[in-house]
Design brief:
Order of helices and strands: EEEEEEHH
CATH superfamily of the largest domain: Immunoglobulins
Radius of gyration: 20 Å
Strand order of the largest sheet: 3-2-5-6
Number of strands: 6
Distance between the termini: 10 Å
Structural class: alpha+beta
Length: about 150
Amino acid sequence: MQVKPSPFSDPDEESHAASQWHITATPGDYSSPVFDSGRDTENMEGITTPPGILNDSTTYYWRVRHRDNHGAWSEWSVETSFTTMRLPADVNRDGQMDAADLAAVAAAFNSPAGGPNWNEDADLNDDGIVDIFDLVLMGRNFGGGQEK
C-alpha cells in the first residue's frame, strides 16, 4: 500500500531532510503502530509498506511528519484513513499470486461448498464451486501481488 501526503513546505524555506510515517489500525492511537518508519531519509514524499505488514480488507489510519535540514520536526499531519482490499487470487493471503495459490485452487478443484476438499478462498468468483472459472481468474492474476 502506498500513502502520499501533501507536498513538504517549511515557513523558513528550509529543505526537506526526513519524514516519519505511522500506520495504525486504531484511529487516533499510535502508541503501537502496525508500521513506524522511524526517521526516513529516502521515502520523504510517499511510502509503500513492505509486504505482509497490512491485512486484507482492513481500515488503517496514517499520519506523517517532516523534518527540515536543521533538525526541526513538523507537527503530525491530520490523520487519514484507507482500506486495504484482498488481492483477487491470493488464496493463501501471503501478498502474492503464485504457484502456492494455484496449488490451493487445484487441490479444491471440482469441490462444491461444504465438500471434502472445499476451500472458500479458492472459490475466486464466489459461485459455490471451485471450477474452471476460478482457474481462469487465477490465470488472469498470476504473478501479481503487493509491491516490494
